[in-house]
Prior knowledge:
Elements: H1 12-26, H2 28-40, H3 43-65, H4 73-86, H5 94-106, H6 108-115, H7 121-157
Amino acid sequence: MSRKQKPGWYDLQKQRHYERMARLQYGPEIVNESVRRWNSYPLAEQQAILWEGGQIYTDLAAAVAAGQPAQAAEVQAILERWHAHLRHFYEPTLDILRGLGELYRSDPDFTAFFQQFHADLPEYLHEAIVQYVDDLETTELERLLAEDDLNARRSRLS
Length: 158
């Protein structure tokens, strides 16, 4: 398969639709960066990245099937892999991560995609992402408060 050819599952029209939606919601810069990054990967790396994403969703589906709560540490570790995986395309903000969680359970195309792994995966993924983002926000707030406290102590000592 040449560099220009896309695998049989690739739907250029859907991809362009998603890019338009993302440009409207998040601005053109992040989408242009994502397209640039993706096109910079050799075909073998693109396939490896897609396989990695599929493995993440397979692991999440296994967690659903095993009855693990979306908030379980093991599930949240899978979400860390998901977050890292997204960085192949762009640096997602917390708002983007949260928005993806909502999109995965509300957009018919995404819902159908995730239901191929497990019927309950769209809702489960949403719950897991909400917990993941909440934890990231809490960690960031704690870091900022500790930094403010340290700066206040330094000011009192000076």
